[in-house]
Amino acid sequence: VTVEDYPPTQAIDGFRASELRVLRDRSLAGQVGVQLRVVMRRGGSASPSSMWFYPEPPQPPSDIQSQLTWDDVAGAALIVRWQEDAEVASKLLAAGPIGYAVCHDFSRANGPLATRYQVRLRLCNASEEDKEDAWTMLPPQLLLPEAEDTGSWSCVRSHLWALRDQKWFAQADDALEVELRHGNALFWSDWVQAGLMELDVLPPMPVPGNHLQFDDTQADAVRLTWLPFLPTAGTGLRDLEYRVLALELPDC
After folding, report:
1. Which helix H or strand E contains 97, and what residues bound it?
2. E strand intervals along the chain
3. In Å, how far are 96, 123, 125, 181 from 130, measured between CA atoms?
4. Residue-wise DSSP of 38-53
5. Helix (H, G, I), strand (E, B), or coil: what is residue 224?
6. How much is the pLDDT for 192?
7. Mean pLDDT of 176-180
8. Which of 41, 100, 165, 184 is the most buried (most CB within 10 A)?
9. Higher pLDDT, 128 or 120
10. What span, in angstroms and rounded, lies between the C-alpha atoms of 134 and 125?
11. Mean pLDDT of the chain
12. 192/177 Cα distance (integer angstroms)
């Protein structure tokens, strides 16, 4: 690993060379690590260097898939799955002590990988003027991989988040908009739309050709029989509620 100190009068990307130390090696192509320190103009003293950090936000979520589910016990739920491009070249480890120091600091949520995520959502029944203020920001959460395809330094990680708070599904004919972003200890990525879900469930359907049967008809009572209705496919709803409407007709 070569550390190059430029002449103090030479400018590098807008900085004086005396304020910038450049670490260069072909094995580190594509890798960026930054340290900062505070230098006193008088006396020449300086603070200790900061931890190594990556100067850009992590990559936003990708390959997002959202699905609404319904269950007789748990109620409605929104399931969001996405992937994180977690490919980080392991060549840093081959760069000697400095490479190990960079890897150590990157593993403390200062590197290019995301270590947390945040969700915001809103019901799309607000006016255009109020939509921006209608977002509800959920607290950030740790980004724990659901599954990994390969090793921890070069892989695509899959993640899952579920919304089960029934207040978001109580209003029929609304749509629920969800956005997602990645972050680490320093930066947040841009928001990415995770889905615009219509909050409606198709009603159960009667068996084709079936009709009500009148059994045990009496002067003041009658027993109705029918085949069970068919629940909406794919919803997981099996407990159905039936309502019977009766109309008393006048004597002819």
Report:
1. helix 97-105
2. 2-4, 11-12, 15-16, 22-24, 62-71, 75-85, 116-123, 136-137, 141-142, 147-148, 156-163, 175-183, 192-198, 213-215, 223-225
3. 54, 11, 10, 22
4. -B-TTT--BPPPPPPB
5. strand
6. 95
7. 93
8. 184
9. 120
10. 9
11. 76
12. 11
d(CA 54, CA 51): 10
Tokens of 6: 């430029």
Tokens at residue 131, please? 């939509």
Mean pLDDT across the stretch 69-94? 74
Sheet holding 156-163, edge to edge: 62-71, 75-85, 156-163, 147-148
* Cβ contacts of 240 within 8 Å, gap of 6 or more: 204, 228, 229, 231
Please list, in sequence order, all residues whose beta carbon lies within 8 angstroms of the beta carbon of residue 189, skipping any fewer than 6 positions away. Answer: 57, 58, 59, 60, 61, 114, 181, 182, 183
CA 139 to chain centre: 12
The pLDDT value given to residue 74 = 76
Question: Cα dist. 164→69, 147, 169, 176 in Å?
Answer: 10, 22, 9, 13
Pairing of strands 15-16, 22-24: unpaired
